[in-house]
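Margin note from the TA: students keep mixing up input and output lines. Inputs are the sequences; the output is the structure of the whole complex. Example:
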Amino acid sequence: MGGTGVMGAMAGTVAMGATAGTVSRKPAGRKLVITVTRIEKDNVDELKNTIKVLICEALQLEDVSPSDIEDDAPLFGEGLGLDSVDALELAIEIEKQFGVRLTRDEKDREAFASVSALARHLMESRKGRSDA
Amino acid sequence: MTAPKRVAIIGGGPSGSALATFCARAGHQVTVFERHMPAVPVVGESLLPFGNRVLDLLGMSTEGFVEKSGALFVRGEQAVRYDFEESQRPLYTRAHQVERSVFDQRLREVAQHSGVTFCHQEVSSPPPGFDWVVDATGRRRVLGRRWTTYAGHPQLKNAAVARHYLGVRRPEGAAAGDITIFSFDGGWFWLIPLRGDLTSVGLVTTPSRRGLKFDEAVGQCDALGELLRDATSTGDLSGHRDFTEYAERFCGPGWALVGDAALFLDPVFSSGVLFALEGAERLARVIDGRLSPEEYEREMRAAASLIEPLILGFYSGDFFDLGFVSAEHQEPALRKGVVSLLAGDVFDGAPRMAQVVSRRLADLAFRIRRSNAEATLASAAKGSTGTADAP
């Protein structure tokens, strides 16, 4: 059990206080719904788009829409300005939506460099799985 | 600011007295109807640091009450202590353990000092001649039941039984003044040090252990039994059921609900009095025309929605998985988020980590259990191949 619970379903939006980091957050309480969760073999653009939607929704970014995120822009530090807690939330959401696990080791950290890097990583993981 | 209103508050507990004080100070004519004068002992004896915001606004003194700096959670052989100083936003880091008869009486005196009239009377229907009638009767929800409907919670259907003792030992790992929660399969005990030698001990059971008697349960919990070995009980057991409820609406024309009469989730994280006080401060602003009823209700529900996953996580075990973990597996910021929730920092825009922990609790617990399982498998594999372990 978990998720937003009964109170969450009734709560609607929550007022946000000051947050650390450079991005501002949407009011909480909305449930993330992504309809496309399969990684299509040749459809990198669609995958990148889905990743951008996932980033905005899962991390509840307020002033950023999916189309604002450039494919190759850094996600962490400069660029989008996400932090290690965002990385954790993103890893959780990616695993839930795509079934691909992202850990703390080197290779996986490279995957977080940009949307393109993430898309590449997800496609490679997918290929690895179907070859097995 | 609006023209002075005639306000009737039914119930002289923390929510009723606090609401009365704020309304009277704003210039309204306030009468509190209370059936027990002076205040009698009730449960809800452990406060939270963020409850101090409203206590400070009231000018309420906490002199003489035991200072509480954290909480110890025990499950079998494992124990984890959280100190409120670890909150992400340590605005308030200390709370108190209170004998409610003293605490409630003191809150009433603050109200009386502000010009509130107390009427020693039991009320079962809305008294006539008031602009606002407020139900602050706690879990009895005396008038609320005729104004609105209440829903139970699909998962939370617990019952409690409590008693005071003299001569209870302090649990190992607890700092002076800590509340200790002993968790077992199907329920938990609270241990709240009150004053001098007095301790409140309560048993909360889930439906799976309904019918479990207090003394039986103590008998089954070795750690607690040891602490109570030389203790003597000072009174009868008080019983509490059906306390998890929330109203469909908190306000209507000329009526409102505050405290437990509006909403109560579960005692496990001691949030009841915090919600009573925060609700009272907000409802006073509604009565004074400075806050809309919708906003009052939305803010209370939003705060409850932050604590709810933590409560459900306690009963599911996820909360313990999050706590009983070695430092290398846990993001340090998560602990701050957990403590922020435990400290009651859930109003007026909770800190980001509290929000993340609240909405991701189950996922985080799952990942920690998985990490732990893999670490165990890895070291077992190393052992079986006979390779030397790294120093």
